Amino acid sequence: MREKLLFLGLYLKEKGSFKASKWIEEFPKPEEILEKFRLKEKDLLDLAERELEKAEKVGIKILFIKDLTFPEDLKLIPYPPLFLYVKGELNDLTKFAVVGSRKPSPYGKEVARYFAEILSKAGLCLVSGLARGIDTIVHRVCVEKGHATIAVLGSGLDVIYPAENKDLFKRIVETGGAIISEFPLGTKPKRENFPRRNRIISGLSKGILVIEAGERSGTLITARWAQEQGKEVFSIPGNIFSEQSKGTNFLLKEGAIPVTHPLEILHYLGLDSEKTLSEEKPDIEITEEEKTILEILSLGPTHFEELAEKTKISPPLLLQILTELEFKNLIKSLPGKYFQKIS
């Protein structure tokens, strides 16, 4: 306990320094901390005890990297956090990160809801960053369905950011999930905190899915951390003319795995089952033209030209609609320009 308190005191004195990840190696004996930084033991212990008291009052646990309850996956990453502040429960479910743009397109929002619902229903605990946009959608879908999710903050746990997610913060804890951060209480959400936060999102997870990301999106930093940690990166293919898809399409060129259905991720993780495969699809918005095509395809596999003739839709537009239906996993293409409805 003394070792934990001395390291925590130093961590607080150094304002949660990123260098802390190397202190365990540098100072095998706690006494060396006092020597190196010319500090008094009592000062560090007082700092640490005050922080622990504040945390306890608001239901926050402070985990030390040597604690048995500290997540094993995080101990193994480059630059592991020395401390982890936790509100809620770090469950034993397989964890998987889903991240993306703060300003997603309608397409990105729909994909986020679709993947979050199926992946969480299949038993994955989804990890994200509580940011506006894709992150918020992912967490919200999980809590609405009663599934555990983990949000990793770039601020202290007593500084909820963005402020509009205060209710979501509370609901994540209530539904068996957790809010975590490596930053001491009172830490503001500074810009430089988020790249650090991103390594924890990927570090906790078996893999990461990027749904939409701009060319210079912070989401790409999470993907880079995942690659450095030896985690698989999945990416949703996007419109080549869309700003929100420039990052995801770049990741695909760099070797990320393209996915168009959640079951592809479950297959990779070895978590697919008959139960998952047979579960109902989440509600998907269907246009009138798509409904017409689905009605025709419900009678059996149909050739492209027959569809064009029956629907009176121009071939270029029909091809676009069929592609959208494939992305929604409602139909599949067959050899010879035939299409079939997926039951």
Overview of the molecule:
It holds the Pfam family WHD_DprA. This is DNA-protecting protein DprA. The chain has about 350 residues and is an alpha/beta fold. It has three domains: about 1-90, no CATH class; about 95-280, 3-Layer(aba) Sandwich (Rossmann fold); about 290-340, Orthogonal Bundle (Arc Repressor Mutant, subunit A), CATH 1.10.10. The protein contains 16 helices and twelve strands. Strands 1-2-6-5-4-3-7-8-9 form a nine-stranded mixed sheet, sandwiched between helices. It has a three-stranded antiparallel sheet with strand order 10-12-11. α1 (about 1-15) crosses α4 (about 40-55). The radius of gyration is 23 Å and the shape is elongated. The model has no long low-confidence stretch (mean pLDDT about 90).
What is the third-level CATH name, the topology of the largest domain?
Rossmann fold
Number of strands: 12
What kind of sheet is the major sheet?
9 strands, mixed
CATH architecture designation of the largest domain? 3-Layer(aba) Sandwich
Assign a percent range to the helix content.
40-55%
Shape: elongated
How many structural units, i.e. domains? 3
Poorly predicted tracts of residues: none
Mean pLDDT: 90
Pfam families: DNA_processg_A (PF02481), WHD_DprA (PF17782)
Organism: Caldimicrobium thiodismutans
Family: Belongs to the DprA/Smf family.
Domain DprA winged helix: 282-337
